[in-house]
Specification:
heterodimer, A: about 260 residues, alpha/beta, two-stranded parallel sheet, 14 strands, globular, B: about 290 residues, nine-stranded mixed sheet
């Protein structure tokens, strides 16, 4: 008898997949968003429009799990249009015509800023991370941006990142608005294995819902963020059919070398 | 007239700023490997995403500066270990990285191709890219228009550019299938442009599908035929990304010894791309073309 309780990873992927509505046009980032997009197509949104940063506008389930957003062959069967990076990042994102964006936030702070560049000083880092890529534009210009952090390592949740690779609300309290970013742009929510956060008027994270089986203590322990006591919603669990699909997709990602999913 | 690959790379001199086109796909690896064999040095490399191509050039000691939005091995994803070692420990030599968001890097190339004096951008204040300037104090310059302040970027016009396409004719009209990423603007921003193509086709073929052209012949200085020139990156419809090879690269190059052994095997140990492909054929990795 197969176990019908989703693992933390299965639940997390299911939660992220909910961000892709059947009629939506969503700017889709690499890694978890790319995996979740394929899950979403198989679960409830086969025809949603995905925009990728190489200049791909795509509307169908890839035949294989894409290893990244630049594995063009994975998207070729169902692409409506091929253009270029300038159109994707600097035109479509700013057009006001996308329903949202889903983007990886490997190390995130209370203000929705993301650091994917360095641990330590930029000029002389302890660890040189990959850099922002297109996530910088997604957070700067995107509307209805969903940040996705797949980790429960407390080091990935900070009070204030030391380097802003991709801008959330900067220092909060209106700093983003005063810094020339388009009105209505920026992160709206953060999804992580613990649950869902939104952002309050000051630009700080606010717990919105737990992942099933998670409690306040765990949220406080992992994030280190102030979280008020209270009753919070619980995010929906996948049903039996959905769980079977999630498990297939996780295996597909594993087969294509996704390190976070292999372990 | 096509140019042999080993002649086309003579356009690169030590200290040049060199653009390598491609964004996870259509990457001029055959060119990069020839440059490594020739031990070019002190390059400033411009790419949207550095990928393992930049990693290999850096680890081989060819690069002193990089202007990029990003650098990693897409499979995993896995760090580009040589890139990290250079930035973290000056191994094999110091590497100064001027980081831009990918959109801004594209805007700089767009401006370079159009000989614009500057190009405005908006979402930059408060970012790490705005606050850290490794190569140029004028990375972002504040300007006033009426009673509003804005920031502008410098144009970026590399000395030499290499772009790998699907096909071209002998004149250099270059066609690329699939998304263009940064390639068109990047290529057109370069003073000297080399196009490498999987195949050279007749002008009639080019003219049967002019909408596929990304570069007209008058922009191209050299056109080079190099089958399999993008491996391990893919070329849409021609051959896929070699996932197993990239995974192997990520594991094999974790330390300097492993990186050097890898280069000895796949770069220094072969004379040219043709020998590389023969070696690939005999290996456990993909056949190219598929």
């Amino acid at each position: 008898m197969t176990d019908m309780t989703p693992t933390e990873r299965e639940q997390f992927l299911y939660t992220v997949a909910q961000e892709f509505g059947p009629d939506d046009a969503i700017f889709t980032g690499f890694h978890w968003p790319t995996v979740a997009a394929r899950v979403a197509r198989r679960l409830h949104a086969p025809g949603f429009t995905a925009i990728y940063e190489a200049g791909i506008v795509n509307r169908g389930t890839p035949g294989v799990m894409p290893t990244s957003t630049t594995e063009v062959s994975a998207f070729d069967d169902h692409s409506d249009m091929y253009s270029n990076t300038l159109d994707s990042l600097q035109t479509y994102l700013k057009s006001g015509r996308l329903d949202g964006a889903v983007v990886e936030a490997a190390t995130v702070d209370r203000f929705g800023n993301v650091n994917s560049t360095c641990v330590g000083e930029y000029e002389n880092p302890t660890v040189r991370l990959p850099g922002p890529g297109g996530a910088n534009d997604i957070l700067a210009y995107g509307e209805n941006v969903t940040l996705v952090n797949g980790s429960t390592d407390p080091r990935r949740y900070q009070d204030q990142v030391s380097y802003v690779s991709s801008p959330g609300y900067l220092g909060g309290d209106g700093e983003r608005d005063a810094s020339g970013y388009p009105e209505g742009s920026g992160p709206e929510r953060l999804l992580c294995p613990l649950g869902r956060f939104t952002f309050d008027d000051t630009g700080r994270t606010k717990l919105d819902a737990f992942a099933p089986g998670v409690d306040l203590e765990q949220v406080r322990e992992v994030t280190g963020w102030p979280v008020d006591d209270g009753d919070y919603d619980v995010l929906p669990r996948p049903g039996e059919e959905s769980l079977a699909i999630l498990r297939e997709e996780i295996q597909a990602a594993r087969d294509r070398g996704y390190t976070a999913i292999k372990s | 007239m096509t140019t042999p690959l080993d002649t086309s790379v003579c356009a690169v001199h030590d200290g040049d700023t060199v653009f390598f086109g491609g964004f996870g796909y259509n990457q001029p690896f055959a060119i990069a490997h020839e440059l490594i064999r020739r031990e070019v040095s002190d390059l400033t490399v411009v790419r949207g995403s550095g990928d393992i191509l930049l990693d290999q050039l850096v680890g081989a000691g060819c690069v002193s500066e990089a202007v990029v939005a990003h650098c990693w091995n897409a499979i995993g994803p896995t760090p580009t270990h040589a890139f990290r070692r250079a930035v973290e420990s000056d191994d094999p030599q110091p590497l100064a990285v001027e980081e831009f968001g990918l959109g801004d890097l594209n805007l700089r190339l767009f401006a370079g191709a159009r000989r614009l004096p500057f190009i405005p951008t908006t979402g930059v204040v408060g970012t790490g890219q705005f606050e850290h300037r490794m190569l140029d104090e004028n990375k972002f310059v504040e300007v006033t228009v009426g009673d509003e302040t804005h920031h502008v970027l410098q144009p970026l016009a590399p000395d030499v550019g290499f772009v790998h396409v699907h096909r071209a004719d002998e004149s250099g009209n270059a066609q690329l299938f699939g998304p263009k990423a940064e390639m068109k603007y990047g290529a057109m921003a370069c003073d000297h442009l080399v196009v490498t193509a999987e195949e050279i086709v007749a002008t009639e073929t080019i003219q049967s599908a002019p909408e596929q052209s990304i570069l007209p012949a008058f922009i191209v200085d050299d056109v080079v035929e190099v089958l399999g020139g993008s491996h391990p990156a893919g070329v849409l419809d021609y051959y896929p990304r070699d996932v197993a090879y990239l995974e192997h690269y990520g594991e094999a190059t974790v330390d300097t010894d492993g990186f050097e052994a890898f280069l000895d095997e796949w770069v220094y140990g072969v004379e040219d791309r043709s020998e590389y492909l023969t070696k690939l054929e005999e290996s456990r990795f993909r056949r190219v073309p598929a």
